[in-house]
Amino acid sequence: MSTAFLHAFGAHLPGRVVTNAEIAARLGRTPDWIESASGIRERRGAAPETTVADLAVAAAQDCFERAGVDASTLGLVIVASGSAPPGFPGPAAAVVARLGLEGTPAFDLPMASAGSLFGLVLASQLTERFGDVLVTGAEKMSAILGAGPLDPNTAILFGDGAGAALVSSRPGRWRILDSVLHSDGQFRDDLAFDWASPLRMNGLTVILQASRKLPSAIEEVLARQGIAAQDVTAFLLHQANQNLLVRVAKALKVPPERVFSNVARYGNTSSASMLIAAAEWSREDPPPGPVIFSAFGAGFHWGALLAQSV
Amino acid sequence: MADSTRRQRLLGILKTITESPIPANDEESLFESGLLDSFALPDLVSALEAEFAIIVPDRDLNPRKFDSIARIETYLEEHGA
User: What gap in Å lies between CA A245 and CA A211, rounded to an integer?
Assistant: First the structure.
């Protein structure tokens, strides 16, 4: 039995709302086309001077408030981001500095959409060694979109934001039961960005792969624990696209409302999205029972984590 | 299985999924013609698996393999459908 627990989640969304109308005008498309293609109505945009670390720290503070702790309890900090500027050090160093931590280990996961899931799984394995672990996923996707000419297929999707989770070996609200992670590099060029050229996304391949791999990973971790998908109270997934979320629910034969969705309001915030979803879901006084976290992203990297309310 | 039977079953799947007339040219791209989009493609693959009792492994989840009637027929033939 795992001795890792999820204590609380946090989120931060920049105040500026970027509507479909604003993007449609720049792309020569209509707001309705954007919504029908993605299920997204609006997303948030960070100010030019805001950094990935700024977003991560704000989400972390929200998480600490909800957990009733402060940063001094942390034994390890993990910062996932696929949109942090290139070079070193990555944003983890700025995050621990901003949190007032001296000597607390921190590292970056330079991954995109699956980053916070990989962070949670790592945290669940490391908490006995390091104590309380903060996992954040923080993304300034507007910086990526602004680095090249606007592509209608990607410009409509992404938003800025950050999510956070506190993982601890101390008993908390949800016990982490099991997890699975996978990577397959043969499709690494189908979703990629390197700051030297615009974001590349082969939507056909990405959706085809994600439509299979998300349900497969979820079923894999549920089968290992002998739990049926129909008994899971909530599926907290990377918020890529509403159509994909509906498809995952259909594949798992669960009611679509069981798959939490806020993609209409925030768009795809990459590594941040799963934890932002968890933060909003946990605020709604969710019913007890098993909960699934799952994500799929560039690489491809994907997986699922199963937790159970205590 | 006779090719003509396989072909008719394939065309039936395409008609069901796309709800549109099937291209006369077997080489025409189903994506560029707008018949299939990123969310119809997974449905097509699942339908092929169910109809022809095959399993499309993840490494074959490549849109290019399903880009036209001709390519789908080739894939089915190679996989014994």
Answer: 9
CA atoms in the 13 A half-sphere facing the CB of A141? 31
- CATH number at B12 reads 1.10.1200.10
ipTM: 0.86
- Separation between Cα atoms, residue A212 and residue A228, nearest integer Å: 18
B38 vs A: CB within 8 A:
yes
pLDDT classification of A151: cutoffs 50, 70, 90 = confident
To the nearest whole Å, the CA of A247 is away from the closest chain B CA by 9
Show residues of chain A in contact with B42, CB under 8 Å: 207-208, 211-212, 247
* Per-residue model confidence as pLDDT tens digits over A219-272: 999 999 999 999 999 999 999 999 999 999 999 999 999 999 999 999 999 999
A residues 191-210 closer than 8 Å to B (CB): 202-209
Q: Are A154 and A38 in contact (CB under 8 A)?
A: no
Rounded to a whole number of angstroms, the distance from the CA of A204 to the nearest CA of chain B is 5
What is the model's pTM?
0.94
Task: Identify which of A2, A53, A43 has the alpha carbon closest to the alpha carbon of residue A23.
Answer: A43
Q: Which domains does chain A have, with CATH numbers?
A: 5-168 (3.40.47.10), 174-309 (3.40.47.10)
d(C-alpha A74, C-alpha A127), whole Å: 10
End-to-end CA distance of chain A: 13
Q: Whole domain around residue B10: which residue ranges?
A: 3-78
In total, the C-beta contacts within 8 angstroms joining chain A to chain B are 35
- pLDDT tens-digit series, residues A27-63: 889 999 999 988 999 999 999 999 999 999 999 999 9
